[in-house]
Every structure is written in C-alpha cells, then in structure tokens.
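Case study 2.
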Amino acid sequence: MRVNLEDEEYIIASLPKIWDIAHGLSGFFHKSKEGVFALTNKNIIFVPRFLQLMSNEREKYFGGDKAIVTKLANYSEADLDEDISKNSKSQIIPLNSLVNVESVTIRKVNFLRITFKDEKNKIKKYDFAITKSVISYPQRQPLMYYSLDWTDWVTLLKSHM
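Prediction:
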C-alpha cells in the first residue's frame, strides 16, 4: 500500500544524481542535496538519495549534454514511495502549484529552475543540475556543474502545468 503517492499516481519521467539548490533566505539554511528527480502525473518529487552510475548509464540519462526524458531502470512507484518515507527532506511539489518552469544560465551553466507556491502561498524557487565534481568533507557538496540542455524537461513540465 502506498503512503505518500496516490493509488492512481504513476512516474512519467525520472533522473538520477540531480542536485537541488534553494533560492533566497531559505537557500542560506538549505544545503544542496543529491537525489532522484521524478515527475509523476500529479507531482514533481525530489528525493535525496545517492545512486552510483556507470559511464554507459550516465549516457542514457545525460547523453550529449542533454537531460533526457526517460525513467530510471528498476525504479518503480513503490520504490519512490518508500524513498519518500525514508527521507524527511524529500520535496513534493504539486503540479497545480507550479508558477514557472525554465532553463536559466548562471555562470555559463544551465540549470532547470522551478518556481512554485508553497502551502503558505509563498513563491519558492529551486534550481536542479548535475555536478562535474563534488567535495565530500565536511559535507558532500557540489563544486562544479555540467551545463545541460533542459529543453525537453521544460517542455514536458510546462505541458503538465
């Protein structure tokens, strides 16, 4: 039985090894986390979780410096629901709360920016990207990001707004 996802909710697309970056004052207190980025028919979900990828698997999700719209292999709705339950820092953004989805360029790097209204009707922004390098001490944090083409994801998310 699902706890966090509705019975008729299903995964449309998902990506591994995505980092989330919060904007504004909340970003000051929010450490970037690596995880799984998933789009369901009702929500955008980010679950902090480390997944190891081989180089050939990386090409499946980020081939040609493009974020490809695909699903994670062997990752079902039950797995997503379980990961949300395990990690209290998971973010669930209802599709009906989206204000804008765009690809923004900051310091020569393209990020997927999602703007939405939270439960208190405040506007929040999160950027999503993958990293070239990560520092592990004192806490795992990204140093440099890949500049990906997010056009397919922007189009997909806007079609579900």
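The radius of gyration is 15 Å.
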